[in-house]
UniProtKB/TrEMBL annotation:
Signal peptide feature range: none
TM segment ranges: none
GO molecular function, one term: carbohydrate derivative binding
Domain of life: Bacteria
GO biological-process terms attached to the record: carbohydrate derivative metabolic process
Organism, scientific name: Agromyces terreus
Keywords: Repeat
Family matches, as Gene3D superfamilies: Glucose-6-phosphate isomerase like protein, domain 1
SUPFAM superfamilies listed in its UniProt record: SIS domain
Record's protein name: Fructoselysine-6-P-deglycase FrlB-like protein
Residue span(s) of domain SIS: 33-172
Amino acid sequence: MTSTPHRTAAHMAAELESQPQTWARAAALVDEQAALPARGQRIAVIGCGTSWFMAQSYAWLREAGGHGETDAFTASEAFVDRGYDAVVALTRSGTTTEVLQVVERLKGRVRTVGVIGDAESPLVGLVDDAITLPFADEQSVVQTRFATTALALFRASLGESLEQAVADAATAVAEHLDPELVDAEQYSFLGQGWSVGLAHEAALKMREASQSWTESYPSMEYRHGPIAIAAPGRVTWQFGEAPVGLEGDVRATGARFEAGTLDPMAELVRAQRVALARATARGLDPDAPRNLTRSVILDD
């Protein structure tokens, strides 16, 4: 990778590294967890971009754990008029136009719960119940800790211990990054079950922060076409356990198979660090990435 003049990404770096602490704090928010929809309720979870991917992970965990039917939608394409008991709106800024529109449409008809980074945002006053995580809010345009902290809150609310995830995140923050991993030509992120959303988020982080060529798929779908892209100098990165035989299939192409051994949320932290390292090497500033703003606010 060609080096260009260094540009700072101080906010992303600091926020990325704080995730072990913010996850532990979210896991201890018992009252906030209790405000989420109760076991047995049929719910939808909406968000845009990063928040949509976290919604996918939460939906899989909640439904697979027997807590109730749970659907995840990007807010602009949300089918929320399906008799849901509640709709959870996930947004860092609380100002995203599509999310606000859905919540306004549901007002007085369906209970809405907002999980929001900015405690002063317009969404706080629109939802029936607001769960604010200001300690996880961010200044960098490229999200890292708010999304994962919200997912930590969701996981804890489902009865899961976050101790190992927090420990793995500390490992991910401290580990030496292999230059071969940082300098790859292309990345394909894969996941199964709840880690599919995390794989999608990892690819988004690489695109946003470093303008890299990245793709993401459910692990079992990767062999149905996308594996054609695998080649020497490229990386296929599995979040969580890989399907039997997949590693061998990837290695046969000459590509690097990165078998994630940490909690999948902590593997996302590793991917965030690679994205940051690539951005720095290219002279890019992910605190202010090309064509992006902290929140998408559409004109009427």
